[in-house]
Every structure is written in C-alpha cells, then in structure tokens.
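hi! just following up on the protien thing from before. the input was this:
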Amino acid sequence: MGLRRLVLDVLKPLREPSIVEVALELSKIPGVEGVNITVNEVDVETLSLTIVVEGTDIDFEGVKRVLESVGAAIHSIDQVVAGKKMVEMPSPCRGE
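and the predicted 3d structure came back as:
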C-alpha cells in the first residue's frame, strides 16, 4: 500500500481553472478516490487552498504535475497517511 491521504496547503492564481476543474483533474489521477478543496483565503491575485486527496495508492508526482499545470504551487505538505489503513491523529490528552 502506498499513500492514502495527502493534505496540502496550496497557492493558486485566481485565474482559470476553477477549483471545480482542479478537483476533477486531481480525481483522474490513478489511485485517487476522493478530493476535497477548501478555500481558506482570497487575495488580490491568489487563492489559498487546503487540498485533501484520499485514495489507496496516490501518485504524489501526478498530484504535483496537475497542480503545476494549473499554475498552483504546493506551499506545504500538512499531513501524509500511508500504509494498509488510515491512521488518524490522536486527540490531545487533557489532564484532569
């Protein structure tokens, strides 16, 4: 098993394509089963996006190629899940 989830902080120019088109292009990548794009901030020329890609064996290079082809740049990789099962971040322990 390869990559199962990527959470990316991405900057994309305001110009076309729309985030709908970007999501559809990302969903065509082998191994991708779902894509969620959330707009965090709109600037004069750019959109700040959180992109979540989930699947069973995500082609990270394919994700980068699609984003670069639309003029977007990965600002940071905020979460990676890999392996046979999804492992969620544990909630913080609170002392009582």
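The chain is about 20% helix and 45% strand.
The CA atoms of residues 38 and 50 lie 5 Å apart.
cheers
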